[in-house]
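Q: Structure tokens for this one, please.
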Amino acid sequence: MRREEVAQLSGVSVTWYTWLEQGREMSLSAQAHARLATALRLGRAERAYLFELAAKWDPDQPISETDHVPSSLLACVDLLPSPGGISCGP
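A: Here is the predicted structure, written as tokens:
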């Protein structure tokens, strides 16, 4: 696909898309990334990688119950003196 086509399908300007290709520092919303992933017809793994690189949460990815960590478990982890409960100091 040409740059102009991707930009149009993503709902962004050609200049904006060109800057994205060039790796310029930009603040992009998760929705803009989602539109880009759709325009590029990215597969599930490719889409996940895009959002991982962008450090954004995919708005089209539902939060599953396994993604939620119970607060009681987090409290237990906070009580550990070091990772894995192993003392690393003298």
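A few notes: The mean pLDDT is 83. The chain has one domain: 3-85.
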